Amino acid sequence: MEHFRRDKFRLGAPSSTSWTWSEQMSMVKYSQAPITESLLPLDEDNNRLAIECYVSIMRYMGDYGGNNGGGEVEAVYTLLRNCHGSPPLRDELYCQMMKQTTNNSKTAQRGWRLFTILSAYFTCSEELQPYLFKYLESAAYDKRRAYHGTALVTLQNLRKTFKYGGRRNVPSVEEITAITAGRNAKRQIFRLPGGTQRVLNVKGSTVVKDIIEEMCGLLNISRVEEREEFSIYCIVEGDTFTMPLMKEEYVLDVTTELYKNEQVSMVLVKIITTSSFSRGRGVYCGMEK
């Protein structure tokens, strides 16, 4: 990040009389004061949104206005909304997150938990990518750091985002509340062949392919070709038509969208996998709410 900020952060030239090392270092470490302009050069509209994002980060972390109940949910929605509507803000947001989780002995825990949410949604530019990954890897692989476990989740989420494109639906209030409390996985009941059930952990970055792989592991199915035969169907009671989910779809995107709909919120929701080992033989696997 040192090299990236030299080129991109709002700093004067080294020969400028207004430029100091103290000001430069303050750009990339935790601060309890809101910023007055974006960290990266942005146009006027995005600069305004960047300031709003920074305040939202501070609200979530408890550095601005205290930890009022429910404030973290609105903060997350503001960040996701702003960056979804303006891709240039995504680099700015990640720079802000790196700043607020650096040299922070007060609210770093909440900052890293917020980081896990955001990294499941947005990629960054090719220019920032090596610096962002280096920052996350340094925090995740150093077990002496207090939050290396949460940093590892963030790193894994970001890798998934670059691979699958990131989540498309906003997280539910329940998901944000759980992550804020330190729970980064939702327990789901899955039905296996023969009517048996297993409880699997579904994380924010879990995609359909991950579920299929874990299911096949429980069934001792190791051949790649055979695993490729499986699909997952999301069936809502009363619906007469359904289609298999794409393997790169995020599981919580699917279930959250269903649970938001009043028409299905009170009915049993199942995700069913069908395939066959041989002609005429079916294998069924389902999930219920």
How does this structure look, described?
It is a single chain. The protein has 289 residues and is α+β, with helices and mostly antiparallel strands. Helix content is 45%, strand content 11%. It is built from 12 helices and 5 strands. It has helices spanning 2-8, 21-26, 44-61, 71-85, 89-100, 108-118, 129-140, 148-164, 173-180, 208-218, 224-227, 251-260, and strands at 185-191, 197-203, 231-236, 269-275, 283-288. A 5-stranded antiparallel β-sheet has the order 2-1-5-4-3, sandwiched between helices. Strand 1 (185-191) and strand 2 form a beta hairpin. Helix 3 runs parallel beside helix 5, helix 6 (108-118) packs parallel to helix 8 and helix 7 (129-140) runs antiparallel to helix 8 (148-164). It is elongated. It starts with a helix and ends with a strand.
Provide the descriptors you would attach to this structure in a database record.
5-stranded antiparallel beta sheet, 11% strand, 5 strands, alpha+beta, 289 residues, disordered C terminus
Describe the protein's topology:
Layout: H1 2-8, H2 21-26, H3 44-61, H4 71-85, H5 89-100, H6 108-118, H7 129-140, H8 148-164, H9 173-180, E1 185-191, E2 197-203, H10 208-218, H11 224-227, E3 231-236, H12 251-260, E4 269-275, E5 283-288
Antiparallel strand pairs: 1-2, 1-5, 3-4, 4-5
